[in-house]
Amino acid sequence: MARRKKIYEGKAKTLYEGPEPGTIVQYFKDDATAFNAEKKDVIEGKGVLNNRLSEYFMTGLGEIGVPTHFIKRLNMREQLVKSCEIIPLEVIVRNYAAGSISKRLGIEEGTRLPRPIVEYCYKDDSLGDPLVTEEHIAAFGWASQQDMEDILSLALRVNDYMSGIMYAVGIRLVDFKIEIGRVYEGDFQRLVIADEISPDSCRLWDIETGRKLDKDVFRRDLGSLTDAYSEVARRLGILQSSNITTAPTVVK
Ligand code: TMP
């Protein structure tokens, strides 16, 4: 069998050419990085969990009419997605203060924000993904005015969906990051949610105890990352076992 073509290797995922034109296979690695890859480790089972969790969220978004790049999960670590051109922005939505906004503006972590705040960072690792304004985005042509309206609406719909689904299982969606892709259909382009939605790219806190169930466990050395991600998957009914690295039993 011919070896498939690698298109791109990122910090947590590798992309391969898909079986049909316009498709890509997204492989979830066990690698964890933080602080622009200054901190690195391999966390056995993380890729399997994120593949399942991202499938779950992307499928749910599709069901409520939010377009995503997701086509189907192929196996434990891979999913088939639509090939798209990634807009070079990290779109962050915050409901509570944490992380960089707390540092930047001196707001105590956990403070409820007056309303969801949307931020944009320019996707460039060599610059450390700096925060940018819509003025930069328009001036440098990273996205059009129409794109920005669509991106804002998509980001807020993802926030509503993710907040609701998490609240239902006793988890607070503090903030999250998404990436947006352009899919070309004939002469038209459509914006879709791309990349992944997983505890790598969200802050998730247990509502009762405040326990962190996201990548801050790794960033801040708070214990087992797979235990935290497994807990999210277990609450959502994705896994029966609370420990994926031993004997995960997939429910659906
Ligand atoms: P921040 O508080 O560090 O700016 O992060 C905001 C949210 O974005 C948080 O849920 C983590 C997520 N995030 C990523 O997914 N990738 C990144 O590179 C960074 C810095 C944050």
Can you describe what's shown?
The protein has 252 residues and is an alpha+beta fold. 27% of the residues lie in helices and 33% in strands. It has 6 helices and 14 strands. Strands 8, 9, 10, 11, 12, 13 and 14 form a 7-stranded antiparallel β-sheet that branches. A 5-stranded antiparallel β-sheet has the order 1-2-3-7-6. A two-stranded antiparallel sheet has the order 4-5.
Bound molecules: thymidine-5'-phosphate
Tell me the name of the CATH homologous superfamily of the domain at 85-206. Answer: ATP-grasp fold, B domain
Distance between the first and last residues' Cα: 31 Å
Order of helices and strands: EEEEEHEEEEHEEHHEEEHH
Write the layout of secondary structure elements.
Layout (H helix, E strand, L loop, with lengths): L5 E4 L3 E5 L5 E6 L2 E4 L4 E4 L3 H18 L6 E4 L4 E5 L2 E2 L2 E8 L2 H7 L6 E11 L8 E2 L1 H6 L5 H23 L3 E15 L2 E7 L7 E5 L9 H4 L5 H11 L17
Antiparallel strand pairs: 1-2, 2-3, 3-7, 4-5, 6-7, 8-12, 9-10, 9-12, 10-11, 12-13, 12-14
Helix pairs in contact: 1-6
List keywords for this structure.
single chain, 252 residues, alpha+beta, D-amino Acid Aminotransferase, Chain A, domain 1, seven-stranded antiparallel sheet, five-stranded antiparallel sheet, 6 helices, globular, binds thymidine-5'-phosphate
Short précis:
This protein is of the alpha+beta class and 252 residues long.
